[in-house]
Specification:
This protein has helices spanning 35-52, 63-79, 86-105; strands at residues 12-14, 20-22. By secondary structure, the chain is mostly helical.
Length: 122
């Protein structure tokens, strides 16, 4: 694969050194992501891969299962259980819901996986 151009927003930032580059506005701030949290996420994914296989969760699961597991792990942590990383598990389940929602939007997973109730008035 060969790329022959650099994407450009048309906005520039100039540094004291005279160097210029495209602004980071709207691209997300990956430099603000906690490496401590990322390490716990990675360990949780490693443990899950041992139990279920690499990327098993990306095949798709009902969002209600992720939601239920999120709440259960939060309450386990709140109750004082430290037998596993319940906070990392809750965070992972939320991430899996976000991923699933996006994959449904992209047409990569069936819309039926979003089985969460909608309580808004129509």
């Amino acid at each position: 694969m060969e790329f022959n151009e650099v994407k450009d927003s048309g906005k520039r930032q100039e540094f004291d050194t005279g160097s210029r580059r495209d602004t980071r506005e709207g691209k997300g701030r990956y430099d603000l992501v906690s490496p401590i949290v990322m390490q716990r996420d990675a360990k949780h994914l490693e443990n899950g891969a041992v139990k279920y296989g690499d990327r098993n969760w990306e095949k798709g699961q009902p969002m209600s299962r992720y939601f239920d597991s999120t709440i259960r792990h939060l309450y386990k942590h709140l109750e004082g259980h430290r037998d596993e990383d319940h906070l990392a598990a809750a965070r992972w389940n939320i991430a899996a819901m976000i991923h699933t929602e996006e994959m449904i939007e992209r047409g990569k997973l069936p819309k039926e996986l979003n089985d969460l109730p909608n309580y808004l008035k129509e």
